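User: Is it possible to get a 3D structure for a protein together with its bound compound? The compound here is nicotinic acid adenine dinucleotide. I've pasted both below.
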Amino acid sequence: MTAITDTLRLALVQLNPTLGDLAGNAEKLRAARATAAGQGADLLITSELFISGYPPEDLVLKPAFVRACRRHVEDLAKETADGGPAVLIGAPWMIDDKLHNVVCLLDGGEVQAVRAKVDLPNYGPFDEKRVFTPGPLPGPIDFRGLRIGVPICEDTWNDEVCECLAETGAEILLVPNGSPYWADKIEERIQVMVARVVESGLPLVYVNQVGGQDELIFDGASFALEADRTLSIQMPQFQEDIATFTWKREGDTWKCVDGTRLPAPGLAEAQWRACVMGLRDYVMKNGFPGVILGLSGGIDSAICAAMAVDALGADKVRCVMLPYHYTASESLEDAAACAKALGVAYDVVPIEPAVSGFEAVLKPLFDGLASNVAEENVQARTRGVILMAISNKFGPMLVTTGNKSEMSVGYATLYGDMNGGFNPIKDIYKTEVFKLAAWRNTHRPADALGPEGEVIPERIITKPPSAELRPDQTDQDSLPPYDVLDDILECLVEREMSVSQIEERGHDAALINRIQNLLYVAEYKRRQAPPGVKVTSRNFGRDRRYPITNRFRDKR
Ligand SMILES: Nc1ncnc2c1ncn2[C@@H]1O[C@H](COP(=O)(O)OP(=O)(O)OC[C@H]2O[C@@H]([n+]3cccc(C(=O)O)c3)[C@H](O)[C@@H]2O)[C@@H](O)[C@H]1O
Ligand SMILES: Nc1ncnc2c1ncn2[C@@H]1O[C@H](COP(=O)(O)OP(=O)(O)OP(=O)(O)O)[C@@H](O)[C@H]1O
Ligand SMILES: NC(=O)CC[C@H](N)C(=O)O
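Assistant: Yes, that's possible. Here is the predicted structure of the complex:
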């Protein structure tokens, strides 16, 4: 092992670990280390809590799990006796009977140093104070003569830890992250990291996890900032990568001399790829052979089918059209055209006999009563029963297709179209669904498994949305136009604005009050809804945790 005097070959390892698959994650690390060794690396840096996967949530409250994580890290440490690259790897770790979120330096056959995370995030999707104890303010770690500062993710979102590392002699900041994606997150991260570089005067290397973990998407996009704030490395977004770069000592600072910068995708592509990655990893990591979904000829199921094909390939996606009396002939044509464009298996299963059966059974109870939402919901639930039967019989997971606008106002039937295991568009408002569908018809991301060209027939995008649960129904019979609804919802959900603030944007006060009421009342439905991909700064699920029983209404 040579001392690091003037040159450091540093491998940035952004990989997709599977939560809880300790042996699998350790194997991934071994393979990455072999690759990095081939690239001449002295040191590998991986993402936060790499051995367990991030975020492990309450799994770390199980002592057997924490012990197993440690065993795997100690085994990996022994393997560094081979004189190859050293490793910075994260793990849940007991220190003096307290559980910490740490990074270990593995080198020369041993765990050379352990650093605990100081700043435990407890907002938005994060809940770390619940399970971890904060560590003391750290000093640098001596790595073969180089003093490396290793703040862990949230430690860099405030100034204290990096300042302490700089004051105690760190020469470079190496930051393992478990930083979830949401729209415009790359810019947010870079802004925050630039502030740390300016305050500390140190170069900073930022390595993030890749992959979907339940609701959260980790988008990689690791990067490095020079001490003068130059962005010298930008790694790919939504993709695993291992890349080794050379850092040279220049005077009293370190500079990357061979950095490369890959352009990040634009917002539409990023949102699409996040939804696709979330669905793919949910399905694959939970061991499903594929997915099924009800394809209605409407836009929500069409976009979900396209995302599923991009995620898994057409041979793993089965679509079922379940027509009833109110299904327009255009819907049958559009669903068939969409299935054909995507190249998926497609069945038509009329629900009339099953709905008639329910009506006959209910007749003695409902006799003489006008038909209403009860009968409408029987249609949605009949579809749900049939789709779940296919899922049970053949094994694929049912994809749930409700967008964020519908999830907000409860415009979906419990145990009907809310059935399913996972929802790729749960955090996408309806107006964005239209835009993304049009975007995908003209763009195909490099890692998409679906075809080029129009995958969502134009008429599905242009016709008025309808649940087709009664004659001539459209969504706008009971909801305002989606651009109005979505603006009000975004103000209420993402920005927590008051009714009077929203009114100042030009919306009608009575309408805002009605939407607010629908939003609060639908909390019970959201608690029973399947999880889905988070792509905004505030999703339903991990982020927004409102009470179900709640009499508060903001009044103008
Ligand atoms: N706080 C609470 N905690 C627990 N349960 C609660 C509850 N409040 C009501 N409930 C129960 O929930 C049930 C009512 O909910 P649910 O049965 O779902 O029915 P509901 O919400 O009354 O009706 C479904 C609505 O979604 C619309 N929809 C359906 C299907 C597709 C689409 C679309 O285009 O995407 C739209 C449909 O037009 C209708 O407006 C009742 O049994 C009620 O007792
Ligand atoms: N005729 C149908 N055949 C198959 N699936 C259906 C049918 N009608 C509804 N579904 C399923 O139920 C979901 C909710 O459908 P609905 O038509 O009520 O409203 P939506 O939210 O506007 O969805 P979409 O835009 O997909 O029609 C659909 O996305 C689809 O998965
Ligand atoms: N794991 C963490 O500490 C992540 C927190 C950080 N603010 C982020 O979103 O990137």
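The mean pLDDT is 97. Residues 48, 121, 126, 153-154, 157, 177-180 surround glutamine (ligand 3) (CB under 6 Å).
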